[in-house]
Amino acid sequence: MMKALRMLRKFAAVAVAAVMMTSVAACGSRSTAADTQDLVVARSLETTDMLPATGYSNGDIWAIQQVFQTLTRNKTDGSGVEPGLATSWKKSADGKSWTFSLRKGVKFHNGKTMTAKDVKFSIDFARTARDDKPWQFLFVAIRNVDIIDDYTVRLDLTQPWAPLLADLSMSAISIMPANFAGKSESQFRSDPIGTGPFKVGEWKKGDYIKLVRNTDYWEKGLPKLNSVTFKYVADANTRSQMVQAGQAQIDEFPTAVSVASLKKTKNVHVDSFPSTSLIWVNLNNRKKPLNDVHVRRAMAYAIDKAAIVRAVYYGQAESANSMLSKNLMGYAKETRDLKYDMAKAKAELAKSNAPKHFSLTIQVQSGDPEKSMLAQVLQESWKELGIDVTLQTLDSTTVYSNRTAGDFDVAMFEMTNDISDPDEWMQYMFSSSANVNSGYKNPRVDELIKKAAADSDTDARLKDYAEVQQIIADEAPEIPLVYKPGLFAVRDQVKNFKVTTLGEYKLSDVSIAQEQ
C-alpha cells in the first residue's frame, strides 16, 4: 500500500511540474476575453440535456439553473430555502395542502408573462412518472395542483411531506411555459425557454453551450454578464492551462495537485467554497461476490482514507465517515465507518463465500487524474486481499450511462446534494429504487427514509437519518472516501463569483473587470 502511495506521489510531482511549466509560459499572456463581459467556464462534465425534468448530471443541472428557475430557491449556505418565483407560501393545519403566491411581472425568454397556468403545467410534468425522469421520486407526495387565480396555486399532498419546500427548489421542477410554449417536447429540449438570467444562445453538443443575457430578467440590474460559455474539457490539465493562458476565466474543479502552481500564476487565484461534495465508491451489489456483505466490508476495511487525503488530495479534503455529506442537514458525525484495518479486512473476507481469488473492474472517468490515482490506490489495496482489479477508462457520459444500466462492477463518483433537505440524497443513494443502481435493498432503510420524509419533527428525522447512515456504514453497499470543498481556479478579473454549498453557480452577480 505505501509503495503504491509513493508511486502516486511521484506521478503527482510530475503533473505539478507540467502544470508549472505551463504557468510560466502563460504568465505573460493576455486573456482573449479581456475587457468583455463574456465568461468562459472550462468544465469536466458535458451539458447533454436542458429539459429540467430529464436533466441528469451536474453538467446538465448547473446549466439548467442559469436558464430556468423554481418556486423556492436554495439559500447560499444550504441551510434552507428562500422565495424564488413564489414570494410566499402557507401550509394548511393538517400539513396536506400548501398555497403559493407567485411573483408578478416575471417574463419567459419569449416575452410571455408567467402565470399559475405555467406553474401547474411544470409541476404536473415533473411529477408524472416516466423512465427518463431521474428526479420524479422527489415529487410523489404531490397529489394535485389547483389554480386559484393567475398568481396563486395550491398543492394538495397525499400526506404531510417535510421536504416539500426544499423539493420545489430542485431544477427538475423548474417553471416552464405551459405546453412548452407551443413547441413539441423534442423542440423545447433543444431550444428551451425559462425565466432565468440567461437563455440558450448556441449549443454544440460534445463541445460547449453558450448562454446569453436575458434582457427582460425580473431582478433589476442583473445579470451583468453578456454571456456564459460552459466549455466541455475532459482533461483536467488542459482546463488548468486554459485558465492560465486566459482562454477561460474559470476552471471547474482543478485537481488538488495543481492548486499550488495555480496560486503562483499571475492573475489567477483559487477559490474554495463549502460544499456537499462526497467522493465515493459504488459497488454493484447484484453481482457475485459483491452481493456478499463480508466481501464489501473487507473491501471497505482495506482502504486507507487518511493516506488518500495526503497522497491524492494533498490535504485539501478530509476522510469521510458517512455516505451523507458533512455539510448537509442530517449528517451524523457519530457514524462509525469501517476504518482501515487490513487484518479485519482479511478476517471479513474469510467469512465470505467468495473464492480465494476473484476479479473486478473499476470504471474510471477519463481526463480525471484524481479519479485515476484513486483507482490505482483501490487496485493496490484490494490486491492484498487477493482481488485482481482491472482499470477501465471511459468518458464520463459512458460511466454514468453504465451505472444507469447496471453495467459495472465498481465505479467512483462525486455526489453533491441539489436541495437543502437530505431526503434527496437518502432516496437517490440508499433506497431500494436508488438511482445509483447499486442493487442494494434493505427494508429497514426504506422504512426509515419514508418515515423521516413524512415527519414534521426535525429531531425525529435526524434520528432516523442517523440510523440509515450507520446501517449503510455497516453493510457497505457503497463506500465513502473523502469530503471535498468546492475548488475553482479563477482569473482575478472575475468579480463576485460565488458557488453555494449545494453547488449552484450564482452567475447573475458576476462581472468581468479589465485585466491589469
UniProtKB/TrEMBL annotation:
InterPro entries: Peptide/Ni-bd (IPR030678), SBP_5 (IPR039424), SBP_5_CS (IPR023765), SBP_5_dom (IPR000914). The keyword Signal applies. Pfam families: SBP_bac_5 (PF00496). Keywords: Signal, Transport. It is a lipid-anchor. Residues 1-25 form the signal peptide. Residues 81-435 form the Solute-binding protein family domain. It is found in: Cell membrane. Belongs to the bacterial solute-binding protein 5 family. PANTHER family: OLIGOPEPTIDE-BINDING PROTEIN APPA, PERIPLASMIC BINDING COMPONENT OF ABC TRANSPORTER. This is Solute-binding protein family 5 domain-containing protein. It comes from Bifidobacterium saimiriisciurei.
